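Anyone have tokens for Ser/Thr phosphatase family protein? Sequence:
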Amino acid sequence: MRYFTSDTHFGHPLVTALRGFLNNGRLRAEYLDIWQTQTRAAAHAWIKQYVHDNQTSFKAICDIARHENTIIDNINEIVGHDDELWILGDLSYRCTVEHTLECLRRINCQHLHLIIGNHDRNFRLRFNDMLYEDVFETIDDYCEIDMELPVLDESGKITVATTQQSIAMSHFPRLSTLAEEHGDWPSNWNEFADMAPTTEGWLLYGHTHQDVPDGTDPRSVNVGLDAWDFKPVSEQQILAWLVSRCADQSK
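Reply: yep, here.
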């Protein structure tokens, strides 16, 4: 079985805090209450203001160990030792190579693959690949694989029929949608325009930290952790999600 995820952000204080992994119970409860009763964006704004007003830092208030343990435990609960796990970028940030390797070696899967994200600075220097050659089978900026996907009709709409087709994997959504307004997406899209895929076919991506799997269009799926309850998503789940678009189109 193949599984996919993105944006693990091991060692990243800001993302850890924004996901609600805070080391103070009262602060965590208040933050999550704002998230649930208002919006995620309101919670993000509140915790950033808290850090500013209290002259503290995200590193001081976040619980990196619990964040990493949750992600790794969820992966190991779902992904088998002989399965494949594709991590679509932003593996870690502001931590050592040793810490990144420690996190990866705790994942009980022998077939790990990495698609490089904008925070994966070690992997931008491709001679550093050798540091990770005992944990990753492949390391790429972009990759295509075959999987069971819906058939499109003559008008380009998704049908319930399926067949083996090629699907692309990138850390970024497709270039044609990267510049569009999408709520709380990262606003610095232009920095990554030269990295975003130009394909208009099937696409799996991360980067945006959306809290839903909805892609930028019916032929793409966001596989980021924030959209899938901090769990990896299987190829069957991806197929089911795409086929559900057929029902949406017919309404």
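The two ends are 32 Å apart (CA to CA).
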